[in-house]
Design goal:
mainly alpha, 4% strand, Serine Threonine Protein Phosphatase 5, Tetratricopeptide repeat, binds zinc ion, 20 helices, 4-stranded mixed β-sheet
């Protein structure tokens, strides 16, 4: 997958060069065998060494989510799709709101929390991890890297062994994406990863349409970002549109439909795994300040969410509207905060926003009640002094 955010891609492009070394060509073309390590003195061994160092650094970073249950769950899904390769792979959940996942050539697998927030079920995780595992198993990074070395005579200034030294999260994560200074995998490799990832997931009984659902959802978010809603698939990047069509073809061709109760079970397992993080990840999403995309993404999540989540999804969707400040956005935000405070899982801040919306609508008594409720629910509110001042001003 590897849709690096721009700063990550930039950091990679700036910092890295490639040490020249030419091992036998065949290793790059043969899929990895379970338990296989690169031949000593090969380019691949050097690549792994750099990745191992970047992984070492990543392990100590606060952005890595260490929650045991979430990690065990993702590892379990990865092991299903990767089968006998399971022991060669590690999963890291990186707290970052972008949609991104990757598997480095040494088996370090990164899943951004922004990806987990955009998925709906274990079936979709299986397709995503299957895709990354395909890049790993087919040694795409090594192939890509050799191809780029052939293209560029200027690479070769920095040894691969220096990868991962002192570059922090940005550089380390980008390197672990496995693309070492490249702009990403070729379309051919992406197509192969889509096909194999689909097959790995399908072989474990996952729903054939999961990848299609995921990529259509991402295409709608891309389309919202660039402001063309009429033909979401065609308004998105050509790569996304091609991927949607590939998944549509594969899903249509697959004859198997897994039992509905199993599908529902896997959806619930996924929801249980991410529920403790839902609010934090929604708050992270708004820090991107890409409100049109957030409105599309959280709006779909709100529509799909189980009832027990809807106070939180309504609140953060309302916040995305409020922060966008477009025409009619304040009214939509007010409606959503009213919906949020009626739900059992309403975050305290929903009462504050609801209060200010009521105030703007001329309902001073309602505003007082809601603001007082906010302060009651959040004794440690960082804005307590301001809210108390507003409450005083609203006193009859
Ligand atoms: Zn890919």
């Amino acid at each position: 997958m590897t849709r690096l955010a721009r700063p990550l891609a930039l950091a990679v492009g700036l910092g890295l060069g490639i040490a020249a070394f030419a091992p036998g060509a065949d290793a790059a073309l043969r899929p990895m065998a379970p338990g296989e390590r690169p031949a000593a003195d090969s380019t691949e061994a050097e690549l792994w060494y750099g990745m191992d160092r970047a992984e070492q650094e990543l392990r100590g970073l606060p952005q890595v989510e260490r929650d045991a249950a979430l990690n065990a769950y993702l590892r379990d899904v990865l092991c299903r799709v990767a089968g006998p390769h399971c022991g060669d792979l590690r999963v890291y959940v990186v707290t970052a709101p972008e949609f991104n996942a990757s598997m480095a050539p040494n088996g370090a697998t990164l899943v951004f929390t922004g990806a987990l927030l955009r998925l709906r079920s274990e079936d979709e995780i299986a397709v995503l991890l299957g895709h990354e595992f395909a890049h790993y198993r087919q040694r795409h990074s090594l192939q890509q890297w050799r191809a780029s070395k052939r293209r560029s005579a200027t690479m070769g200034t920095v040894g691969l062994a220096t990868l991962g030294a002192g570059i922090g999260l940005v550089g380390g994560v980008a390197q672990l994406a496995g693309t070492a200074g490249l702009s990403g995998f070729s379309r051919e490799h992406e197509r192969e990863a889509d096909t194999l990832g689909f097959e790995f997931a399908a072989a474990q009984g996952y729903v054939p349409g999961a990848g299609l659902a995921l990529w259509e959802r991402l295409a709608r978010e891309e389309a919202a970002t660039i402001g063309r809603r009429r033909h979401p698939v065609f308004a998105s990047h050509p790569e996304t549109a091609a991927r949607v069509e590939a998944h549509r073809r594969m899903a249509t061709a697959a004859a198997v439909v897994p039992p509905l109760d199993l599908v529902a079970q896997r959806r619930e397992r996924y929801q249980t795994a991410i529920e403790p993080f839902l609010e934090g990840w929604l708050a992270d999403e708004l820090t991107r300040r890409r409100y049109a995309a957030s409105i599309q993404m959280i709006g779909e999540l709100h529509a799909d969410a189980p009832p027990a989540w809807r106070g939180r999804t309504a609140h953060y969707l309302g916040e995305a509207y409020r922060l966008r400040r477009g025409e009619g956005d304040a009214a939509k935000a007010a409606t959503l905060q009213a919906e949020a405070v009626a739900a059992p899982d309403a975050p305290p801040a929903a009462f504050r926003e609801h209060g200010y919306a009521l105030h703007a609508a001329g309902d001073a008594a309602g505003a007082r009640d809601a603001l007082a409720r906010y302060l009651h629910l959040r004794p440690d509110a960082p804005d307590r002094a301001f809210v108390e001042r507003d409450l005083e001003a609203l006193a009859p």
